[in-house]
Amino acid sequence: MNTSIKRQKETFLNPGNGIFLEETYNSWLRDPQSVEKSWDNYFRSNNFSGQKPLDIDATIRAYQARGHLIADIDPLGIQNPEVAKLQGTPDPAPAVVVRRHLESVTEADFEKKYTLPSSLTVIGGTEKSLSLREILTRLNKIYCGHLGLEYTYIPDFEVLDWLRHKFEVPGAWELSGDHRKYIWQNVMRAVTFESFLAKKYGAEKRFGLEGCESFVPAIVQCFESSAEHGVEAAVIGMAHRGRLNTLVNICSKPMHQLFVQFNPIPMEGLGSGDVKYHLGNHSERLLERSGKKIRVAVLGNPSHLEAVSPLVVGRVRAEQMVHQDFEGKKSMAVLVHGDAAFAGQGICYETMHLTNLPDYTTGGVIHAVINNQIGFTTDPRYSRSSTHCTDVARVVNAPIFHVHADDPDLVAYCSKVAAEYRATYHNDVVLDIVGYRRNGHNEMDEPMLTQPLMYKRIKSHPNVLKIYSDKLLKEGIIHEDFIKKETNEYLEHCELEFKKAQTISAMQMSDWHDVPWSEFFANQNPMKKIPPTGISTADIKKIVTAFSTSPEDIEPHAQVFRVLERREKLIDQERFDWAMGEALAIASLLKEGCHVRLSGQDVERGTFSHRIHIIHDQSRDKTWKNILHDIFPNQALYTVTNSPLSEFGVLGFELGYSAYDHNTLTLWEAQFGDFANNCQVVIDSLLSSGQSKWGRQVGLVLLLPHGMEGQGPEHSSARLERFLQLCDDSTQVSCEEDLDAPRDESPDCVMTRQLFEVNWIVCNITTPANLVHVLRRQILMPFRKPLIIMTPKSLLRHPDAQSSFTEITTGTSLKPIYEDQSPAIIASPEAVKKIIICSGKVYYDLVAARRERKLDELIAIVRIEQICPFPYHLLAKEISRFPIAKITWVQEEHQNQGAYYYVRDRIALALGLPIEEIRYCGRAASAAPATGSKMIHQEELLAFIDTAMAIE
């Protein structure tokens, strides 16, 4: 056979090319002149002039590619009931699978033997030829039985062959008797635990696993097989369905700790806690079959179902980086989905697309679907457009195994293959366990209201333990005494743990932490003063010099030279701008051994081309230089990476990353601040309340470009008001404590205590010096809090928005407020008639207007840099300088937006004034964040500046 024909044959026999090649062959059958001459030569030279040989090959390919469409994977028999009889028979599959391939087959053809090309299939094992009857019988068992396989879209021939060998070789699915006993034990525990909970807590919501209990042996098997391939730690992300069973029977959480959650008792530890089916855990499990140990964590998760998925992936990535597990061999992510959520939630798609990106990959994720065939009360026929709930996984060429949940042997085998695939090819893999939901959405719901026919079947359907026990009894694998002994021992253990829970008088928040609670967190002291955040003069000069020097082996763009020249001029004046301040903070932390990770859309250069941490060569592809690398010997790793066009997924990833290692400064930057709208679930349900609900302290930093520069409603506001509304500082308590603090408690100690007690920190920074301090403080604080920074746009290059080196030298710290230090104010503060308090970019507009109108002696301008926690004591001290002045709050945002309603009450409390005396100046209330008209924008700006400068 010549090279061209050989190549065509290899291409033709590839299962992934099915439809086009079948059509080519069928066209040739009808008219040999209708195809290219090379195809005509190929078919003639290989004796394909008759129909039968090719149809056999095409039939096998059809089963491989489309058998999953009719597989008997539904325990209730609702899906494809007409094809349940196919398994174990030679009957041809329906036309949706085989189409025209067998339409002319006669009875005699069933006994005829056909050669099986090794390049096409391994279905024959050691046999080189099989009868059509045997071929169809084997194909029906493999592809139309209790397993629906999707994999032929994978472009890698090696992977295709690997998967075919796992499922097509005769006897491949067989498990030993001991292995099946182990599976039965896990099934028994899963079923018995649910029935025990139902007995003890029948009136409580539990979101039980009933109907899909095979999930437990599935994940246990994933752990066993993964541990054999070197995995030492696994992180699970899942919604509420089956979480309690998972915590106990997969993660080995002591039952009494879980049972305590059902009791009406107080909670000890920081935070308000969460409902039991949202909580996490961290433990070490001894794997019974392999004897290996594996660390298992379940992350806390709200009812936003899939929101936890990117957090898990980020958390695993962080662990891999700490342990230099760059291939993902020691730590892995397991994401557990509901069928409706996997198909319906966009975050699944966002997370899936991170899987092979260099700075986000974890070496493959194992996805397990608890497929109840219903979403809340919605039939899947009305909740998705795709055939399967798992179709999103095809975008990363993940193999998908749809498995009948009442066949625990097959579930376990597919779990074993899934773990082996992940370990071998470091890609995602999906295990879709198709079962049902025995109760309603929760145990209080009545499912017959919306799904009467389904639930009539469920009521008469035996549970998986009954089905599996009968099967193993019949085969002699187990006996009645074994069943009785194992079940009674497990029930006795449940009862003992239940009784122990009744003796416990308070729930410990620490029992539900989803990360190891290290000494750093355990020994926190809110009275411990935060050290100064300044940098030595020598380090300042070394960093800014490196940051303004072009790499020798890179050919930069001309614009980069201009940026570097501008930096050099600033250095000569011993001053720095925003970009240099950011670099100073990052590089100084790198020197101190702190890993820094900056992620977001276009962060390598910065949205406004101001950052330029990565300089790309203009003549060579994939050639660049990170100019913050190698400034100091043995400095820590700096990762700066452009993210995919995703906010929800990427911010979730970075939150998970920051939750693992407290010595990493993790920053996420929105391209524009209002793009954070797309990840509001992460902000609301996971970041702002993470410590309160789950005891999770993180130091994640959000950089949100904010400011109204006439760019329209979608490029103006980072919604400062939303972040302030989520702050949990109590105005009355905070004010009284801070203003009446002990005489020996310094302002720095007051601020430390405030930082410790608040849920997160919100800043509207206007100087690069304060940026240096606030970023360095994130690591130097003896605790961790999320940090929200409203970052500038026009101020990135504003000549007044610069700082001197002296503002960040050794011994200096963040300034939560900037007092008015203008000469006229210092000379005669008693003459000041009006005090403007503001925050953010508007300060520079106000100073310019005051200077222009020669009002320097009459108007003092105070800007607040750290809004939450509020600097009561510092503001009170500053305002006390001006005995006769009236107070006005000025902001550029609309009245119902920005900081006004947050700061108004706090300013009044700090100064002991009625709220009515805190006047407002700014734009009127509006539904939109900003106007789209530059003319209107300018008119609004001039109007409120005029009002701000007015002296009564």
UniProtKB/TrEMBL annotation:
GO biological processes: tricarboxylic acid cycle
GO molecular function terms attached to this record: oxoglutarate dehydrogenase (succinyl-transferring) activity; thiamine pyrophosphate binding
Enzyme class per UniProt: oxidoreductase
Alphabetical list of SUPFAM superfamilies matching this protein: Thiamin diphosphate-binding fold (THDP-binding)
Keyword check for GTP-binding: no
Coiled-coil intervals: none
Pfam family, one: Transket_pyr
Record has Oxidoreductase as a keyword: yes
Essential cofactor(s): thiamine diphosphate
Top-level taxon of the source organism: Eukaryota
Domain Transketolase-like pyrimidine-binding intervals: 576-798
Keyword entries, A-Z: Oxidoreductase, Thiamine pyrophosphate, Transit peptide
Enzyme Commission code: 1.2.4.2
Cleaved signal peptide residues: none
GO cellular component, one term: oxoglutarate dehydrogenase complex
InterPro entries: 2-oxogl_dehyd_N, 2oxoglutarate_DH_E1, DH_E1, KGD_C_sf, ODO-1/KGD_C, THDP-binding, Transketolase-like_Pyr-bd
Family to which this protein belongs: Belongs to the alpha-ketoglutarate dehydrogenase family.
Role this protein plays: The 2-oxoglutarate dehydrogenase complex catalyzes the overall conversion of 2-oxoglutarate to succinyl-CoA and CO(2). It contains multiple copies of three enzymatic components: 2-oxoglutarate dehydrogenase (E1), dihydrolipoamide succinyltransferase (E2) and lipoamide dehydrogenase (E3).
Name of the protein: 2-oxoglutarate dehydrogenase, mitochondrial
